[in-house]
Design goal:
With about 290 residues, the protein is mainly α. The protein contains eight helices and two strands, in the order H-E-H-H-H-H-E-H-H-H. Helix 1 runs antiparallel to helix 6 and helix 4 packs antiparallel against helix 5.
């Protein structure tokens, strides 16, 4: 929520924020180096999918109702406030549209349902990758003009719920893969937040905060885009080789089990000959010397 801005970080709070963001960026980047292969998200069942969608819609409705109640209270109290300029919204909208188009085109061979569904989820999740940590940072510094404590919890609580439920929709797309590039882009976004914190994480009305806001928002959109990158030919060959290797190991296992089975059959045949052969006669029935 940037309708009325927020109070800049300063002093000890600013130092702590910078340290936390720097540590978070380093941790996420390290996790990217440790991630060996693209990882898939757990696929929810039918009931879980319906629950996720219902929770997402409900969170949006509750947030809109909260905003409406807040605005009504402001108007009734005669405290209308002129909204500050918001130069980042066009960047967000254009970026989300670009993410939608790129994902839809990249997965066009997977069918219209998967392509369009993945494009919608990616375009919705991109801004929320930025918005969730952003809301957590500015929430304690915001100053609603009506009952700050109550409306801070109400507005930001419902907004953060929208952030979380929107990001949870990523599990609905079979095209999502968590990659090293995903974590590195996310680490870059958090690092930009850290630089922004050096300026008090001030409202984006001056050139530097505007630039930092725009760059971090673009990195968030790129982070979402990396989740939907199609598998390369090399990855497909690697998967094929892995599958062939597994099949070969299974075949060798069967062969290894067949050898002792054959020896057992030979042994049983020889025992059968010994049992049926009369005493004092050779295998042809002639007397032994």
């Amino acid at each position: 929520m940037t309708t009325h801005g927020w109070v800049n970080y300063s002093g000890t709070a600013e130092i702590v924020l910078v340290a936390v963001l720097a540590a978070a960026a380093a941790g996420i980047a390290y996790a990217g180096f440790r991630l060996p292969l693209p990882a898939t998200l757990p696929r929810p069942g039918r009931a879980a999918k319906i629950t996720l969608l219902a929770a997402w819609v409900l969170a949006i409705v509750v947030f809109l109702v909260s905003v409406s109640a807040y605005i009504t209270q402001v108007y009734n109290a005669g405290l209308e406030h002129t909204p500050q300029s918001d130069p980042i919204t066009p960047v967000t909208l254009l970026g989300a549209c670009a993410v939608f188009v790129v994902i839809a085109v990249a997965h066009r061979t997977s069918g219209a349902g998967i392509a369009l569904g993945s494009a919608f989820v990616g375009a919705a999740a991109g801004p929320m990758i930025f918005e969730l940590p952003f809301d957590l940072i500015i929430m304690p510094r915001s100053h609603p003009v009506i009952d700050p404590g109550q409306y801070r919890a109400l507005l930001f609580g419902t907004l953060i719920l929208v952030d979380i439920t929107t990001l949870a929709l990523l599990a609905l797309s079979p095209a999502v893969r968590l990659r090293r590039s995903t974590l590195w882009c996310l680490a870059g976004m958090v690092a930009i937040f850290g630089i922004w914190a050096l300026y008090g994480f001030s409202y984006p009305s001056a050139p530097v905060p505007i630039a930092l806001n725009a760059v971090s928002k673009i990195l968030a959109l790129i982070t979402a885009l990396t989740l939907f990158l199609p598998r390369s030919a090399g990855q497909k060959r690697s998967d094929s080789i892995t599958a062939e290797g597994s099949a070969s190991q299974v075949t060798r296992g069967f062969r290894a089990e067949a050898v002792p089975a054959g020896r057992l059959a030979d042994r049983l045949a020889s025992v059968r000959v010994e049992v049926m052969q009369p005493a004092g006669l050779d295998a042809k029935g002639d007397p032994l010397a």
